[in-house]
Amino acid sequence: MWIVTLDLVGIAVFACTGAIVAVRKELDVFGAAVLGLVTGLGGGVLRDVLIGAVPPAALLDWRYLLVPAVASVVVFAFHPTFGRRESQITVLDAVGAAVFCVAGGVKAAEYGLGVLPAALLGMVTAIGGGILRDVLAGRVPVIFREELYATPAFAGALLAVLAHGAGLGWWAYVGAGALCVGWRLLALWRGWRAPLPPGLQQG
Amino acid sequence: MWIVTLDLVGIAVFACTGAIVAVRKELDVFGAAVLGLVTGLGGGVLRDVLIGAVPPAALLDWRYLLVPAVASVVVFAFHPTFGRRESQITVLDAVGAAVFCVAGGVKAAEYGLGVLPAALLGMVTAIGGGILRDVLAGRVPVIFREELYATPAFAGALLAVLAHGAGLGWWAYVGAGALCVGWRLLALWRGWRAPLPPGLQQG
Amino acid sequence: MWIVTLDLVGIAVFACTGAIVAVRKELDVFGAAVLGLVTGLGGGVLRDVLIGAVPPAALLDWRYLLVPAVASVVVFAFHPTFGRRESQITVLDAVGAAVFCVAGGVKAAEYGLGVLPAALLGMVTAIGGGILRDVLAGRVPVIFREELYATPAFAGALLAVLAHGAGLGWWAYVGAGALCVGWRLLALWRGWRAPLPPGLQQG
């Protein structure tokens, strides 16, 4: 039960980031709902299509459709309030990515994938929605332009998949998620960056 | 038989819009054919991948490949003629979207999806090709920038899925399609828009 | 064995083009690895999803993940060297596309698709990775802007699928691949272009 709750929290937060991008691009309420749905559900749908779990979970449970739709419309209607709460959203976003990378990696492992592919799919679950959001909104995906985002998701997913293989309990998953959240927030607050191409000034 | 015919008409019209975008972007004849195929078949292929109906119908019937390829090349060769017939194309485009949303929603329902997901997939069938066309052509998808487009498709698909669930006959599908066409054309001709974010001038 | 080797060479070369685009866009090392993986594996994954061969081959064999990851990071670290070797990369890129179109078309035919859809999927295998790379990097896909690229891939795939249907041996596949490489390189070196829209100056 609390797993589904966490999952829905992640979806709702991701949907909010989609709606915020939609408001900044001056899209109408429907565009905001579509971008919100795509951002909230895109990563999980990509994973499910790649492991052959179709129809994707997001299409089999009405809550997975309702939550991001409602979240997007609420953000759309009250966007000045949400625009001011950027730091809370950043924390929630990191939590959402952590939930997604752990759940995605474990689900891929349960479908019989090896450690490395399963970890990769966990990362895809965490970053896929944001990539689709940015491509649809006509901008280079934020994971390419920003502080460390995908690396913590990959690390968290890898840890979760290894824990799954070793038969460890739920506390190991919590640890994997905490690693992802902690690394991401530290990178944000300390301005850590992955290495740039040699010869380029570190911005 | 007439269902397949309608389907092929929808595919041909969508392929034409892809080829017109290709001509405007000054692509060569091959680029026009690729954009035409993607626009005509993209929505249905997306739906089929998501409901697990692979290989997609578009790859199992040669007419589904031939029709959009021929339509694209014809538009490419005679584009000044087609450029002048924008209003007829708009009507045909609305008819194509109506056919796609009804057929897509009913197919998803037949694959066991619930009412809401099936209606969503009907909408994806109708708007997916256009979204892929615009992303490949490097512009923000038109459904985000224009008059009401996706909402009528969702409404038509929802009606069709409900009619399918209630066991109503083909006339109910026609009604669902007519709702989609009528709403779309009224929105275009009266300049209806979905609500914009609060604080933004209605354009 | 040598088929897998050729396949890995194609993946490595494509991954290098992804990493080079990443360096030009000033992405960090992680962005280069992601773009490299997507470019190297994207076409094959698209094909596998469309024919229902999930999880895709790229997720079931660790070499298919390791090779493009290593290739991307090497290019990232030594990009000035690779930037100077553009002509060798062009030749390798043509070889990679030839391997992909033949292998993709034959695999689709083995999954029961008809000649035309199988050839189309062979082409998708060859050009899909580059399209995804360019969409993610925020530019119009190079296949739409450049000299003949997709047509030779389609021709090579068609020939390979026909050879597969006729039960010809591996030498026919080599011939199909050679057609693709030769046509592509001739088009590049002689400046051949597919026809542009009527009324537009041939550039």
What does it look like?
Chains A, B, C: The chain crosses the membrane at residues 6-23, 30-50, 62-82, 89-109, 115-136, 148-164. Chains A, B, C: It is a multi-pass membrane protein. The structure is a homotrimer of 203-residue chains. Chain A is mainly α. Chain A has one domain. Helix content of chain A is 77%, strand content 0%. Chain A contains 9 helices and no strands. Chain A has helices at 2-24, 29-51, 62-77, 79-84, 86-110, 115-136, 142-145, 150-165, 170-190. In chain A, helix 2 runs antiparallel to helix 3, helix 5 runs antiparallel to helix 9 and helix 8 (150-165) runs antiparallel to helix 9 (170-190). The longest helix of chain A has 25 residues, at 86-110. Chain A is globular. The mean pLDDT of chain A is 87.
